[in-house]
Amino acid sequence: MQSTHITIHQPADPLTHRPFHQPTRSPSSPPAHSPTHRPICPVFVCGDFNIHVDLSDDKHAAQLLQLLQTFDMVQHVTEPTHVTGHTLHLVIARQDTTIDHVHVDTLISDHSLVVFTLHAKKPAPSVQCVTSRAWRRLSMEDFASDLAASKLCTDLSNVTVDEMVQLYRTVTTELLDKHCPAVNVCRRARPMTPWCDAERRSERRRVRAAERRYRRTRCDVDKRAWHKWRQLCVLYKR
Question: For residues 19 and 153, which has the higher predicted lDDT (pLDDT)?
Fold first, then answer.
């Protein structure tokens, strides 16, 4: 499931308590957020807003409620979440997003833990079919031998440029279809993995290289190195 999750912590300092401050921008620039531009994935916002939404006469709570109504969003927490008896931790989602079983758990400090269940449909896996060639199976010697015996290696002094281009395309395609025929491959699209950055991909390549080395040598030293890199990769993934 693809979704947008925003966590907020609002400082309690009155000098910095400006949750609805908008950055300065030119009148011609489009707004950063607009009620008419709805994201295609579920959006839910949760965190410590430090706004007393349980108080009807609180101006910040009134501003927040007005802002949520503008963007067609709903605040789901109705119980006190702070030791002082106020509701500071909020769970906000669009009206078309189903959130059930919202309840305030025990205090873990002067704040309580808010637990909820988010209902979202998991999209069906999509399959993408592409045409490719198994280049690793291409025998360079056989390909070079057939290329040397083709029309491309004959006298082309009387051939125009257009005819030469067409001949090159025809001969190379025929040779590739003979030595490395095209095949249709269907791949299942993988879900998004934002945690897999360049460093994680480098670690996975290191693990695969260590595994190939062990499969090739069957040496105990290479086996221990492979297991070491694999365990480190698992720890980093967690």
Answer: 153
Domain residues for the domain of 77 are: 4-25+34-119
Q: Whole-angstrom Cα distance, residue 223 to residue 213?
A: 8
Alpha-carbon distance 62 to 52, whole Å?
A: 10
Q: What pLDDT digit, counting tens, does each position of 105-139 carry? A: 887 788 888 888 877 677 777 888 888 888 888 89
Query: Between 13 and 109, where is the model more confident?
Result: 109
Give dist(CA 65, CA 229) in Å, integer: 51
Strand pairing class (43-48; 4-9): parallel
The total of structural domains in the chain comes to 3
List strand residue ranges (DSSP E) for the chain, in order.
4-9, 43-48, 73-75, 89-94, 98-107, 112-119, 127-133, 182-188
How far apart are alpha carbons 44 and 85 in whole angstroms?
Answer: 24
- Claim to verify: residue 88 and residue 135 sit in the same structural domain: no
Contact between 103 and 79 under an 8 Å Cβ cutoff? The reply is: yes
8, 45 in Cβ contact below 8 A?
yes
Q: How far is CA 107 from CA 10, 52, 83, in A?
A: 19, 18, 8
